[in-house]
Amino acid sequence: MPLDTSTYSLALLRVDGRRWNELRRLHAQIRTQDAADGSSYLEMGHTKVMCIVTGPSEQQQQRRGQTSQRDAAAINVNVVIAGFSSVDRKKSGRNDKRIQEIEVTIANALASNLHTHLFPHSSITISLHVLSQDGSLLAALLNATTLALIDAGIPMTDYIAACTAGSTSTYAAGDDSADPLLDLNNQEEQELPFLTVATLGDSDRIAVLVCESRVQVTRLEGMLVVGVDGCKQVKQFLDQVVREKGAEMVREGAVEKSDAMGMVLDE
Amino acid sequence: MPITVLQPQPAAKRQAAAMSVDSDSDSDSGGGAEVHGEDILTPGTVITSNSQWMRGHGTYVQPGETAITSSLAGTLTKTNKLLSVRPLRARYTPEIGDLVVGRIVEVQAKRWRVDVAASQLAILQISAINLPGGILRKRTETDELQIRSFFAEGDLVVAEVQQLHQDGAASLHTRSLKYGKLRNGVFVSVSGIGGGSGVVRAKRQVWTMDVANAGGKVDVLLGVNGYIWISKHIESDTNAEAVGINRMEESVSSKVYSSQNDPLELSTMREIARIRSVILALVENRLKVDEDMVTKGYSEAVELGRESPDDDLYLGGEKGQRLAAALTGH
Q1: Burial class (CB in 10 A: 0-12, 13-18, 19+), B245
Q2: Which residue numbers delimit the RRP4 S1 domain (chain B) (predicted)?
């Protein structure tokens, strides 16, 4: 229906006019809320999310369920999907299993990436708000979280950059070599098997890999390769956003300039 | 006839932050550090692989490797052989000797837990405060029983960081007449370190200023942690030299732990509110908050207030920008 695969094989263009390996328009802002410790706003095509980081801070009355009495900071993730974010207005319950799974996925990915051992007895709270959804939701949330955590000045190993990849090939057509697709929108997500992949920085180390649809195992490798390649492009973009903000702050005199040049250090 | 699709033309550059990464052109970032004057380090950037350097805050070494890598977005600081990354913005980290304003959040058996905007609550021991009833005396069980009569939950205190614990938590003390419970004023919170706004460590964090419009004298207390207290200046009724340094504590301690505000004139309150607006305007326009800026900003604000018939105190938006422009001289 929405994505006629026969059309794709003719023109090699997707419903929104992209080629198989093109990302949608990315736009991001860092430090959008002055009162928060860290904040960001990210758009991947028509998927728009907002992230606010509070902490690391110590709650005076710890809620019993949370285990922050450890030698590392606890990470709490809250995802709120706005009622107006998709085409049909759905009222999602308080414990929607899908949202809960997204929260746990993000928290686990961050737990291995952030240097939480530097903040004992404290907790980092990440609030994510989905303003508009058009596919690649988990990927957009992960990217926004990375930006907000950098803004909050929380030490981390590397960027977590995420995107999705899908596969157009059908078993019936027997076209095993059909193109995998990068960065799916909502229509494509409905039609095709897809996975969300997140990598650490420029490396090929995978931080998150989620695949909820049935897909033939032979297609997986192609999807993964395309996804990892997309993650690198996303990482470049995120890095550029942070660097521009940093350069702006250095110019304003908000932060002192670096002491030494790279060349000097390597001597 | 086969359909051909031409390579899409690159779109005109929309915004500065818009995507500019081409799918096949990769900027080279494999080499060593590329730190230039205006450039910043971002998480995962290798600073150096030379083993003569030591790693400091904001850096890490991956197990099995020797390269020092940045874990923050910020600028590089070099202290002898120690490399650390100064974050663009982060929460306050306590240092010994810092003057901080804090709020009591928890009362325990022999100590209070104080929110000082750091990653952990600070500790104020009952043995680290001036107990009422005279010269430095030992604390007794009676003091422990009436611990809430000194500080209760929600009280604001000004204190000094006495020591830092292994896990980064701070211990405070108020063993000076300058420190103690805060009253007769208003609390303002600005962001933590970095980010170009907020309180900077300066020679003087506390000062008394004469305010306009017959407001009397006002104390301004800039906590290094970004918590600020602006209050009416209270002259101590006994002359310090007459009482002598040891008896001084005795004479004031009766009032030190009072939670009752003194009567404040409306004119003083207005000027306190004006100083608060000045500080918020400084933060909004990303200027540093220190004695010099606040006093200069205040006199500008008094001038600005005279322009409106009812002496407007609000300094947000366009008025704040005018204030900032006057201060920076642009």
Answers
A1: exposed
A2: 91-163
Q: Which of B14, B29, B38, B293 to mutate to test the interface with A (most CBs of A within 10 A)?
A: B38
Q: B21: which chain A residues are within 8 Å (Cβ-Cβ)?
A: 233, 236-237, 240
Least confident among A65-69, A70-74, A82-86, B275-279: A65-69
Q: Are strands A74-81 and B122-125 parallel, antiparallel or unpaired?
A: unpaired
User: Which ipTM did the prediction report?
Assistant: 0.85
- pLDDT at A151 (0 to 100): 92
Residues B212-253 have pLDDT tens digits of 888 888 999 998 888 999 999 887 654 544 545 555 555 555
Crossing angle of helices B317-328 and B291-307, rounded to 10°: 130
> Reduced to 3 DSSP states, what percent helix, strand and coil does chain A have, rounded to the nearest 5?
35, 25, 40
Instruction: Say what the pTM is.
Output: 0.84
The CA distance from A212 to the nearest CA of chain B, in Å, is: 27
* Interface touch A153/B106, C-beta < 8 Å: no
Instruction: Write the pLDDT tens digit of every residue in B286-307.
Output: 788 888 889 999 998 998 888 8
Structure tokens at B174: 């108020």
Which of the 8 DSSP states describes residue B247? Answer: T
Cβ contacts of A120 on chain B, cutoff 8 Å: 120, 167-168
Judged by CB atoms closer than 8 Å, whether chains meet at B44 and A60 is answered as no
Residues from chain A contacting residue B107 (CB–CB below 8 Å): none
Q: Each residue of A145-186: pLDDT tens digit?
A: 999 999 999 999 999 999 999 988 766 666 666 788 999 999
Contact pairs from chain A to chain B, CB under 8 Å: 202
Q: Could you tell me how far CA A174 lies from the centroid of its own chain?
A: 33
For residue A48, the model assigns a pLDDT of: 96
Q: What are phi and psi of B297, to 5 degrees?
A: -60, -35
Contacts A257 to B, Cβ<8 Å: 37-38, 75
Considering only the beta carbons, identify the residue of B29, B40, B284 that sits closest to A246. Answer: B40
Residues B11-49: tens digit of each pLDDT: 655 444 444 444 443 444 434 444 455 678 999 999 888
- Residues A98 and A161: beta-carbon distance below 8 Å: no
| Closest CB from B48, B106, B286 relative to A254 | B286
The values of phi and psi at residue B266, to 5°, are -60, -40
- Report H helices in chain A: 5-11, 97-113, 137-151, 186-191, 217-252, 262-265
Structure tokens at A65: 């369920």
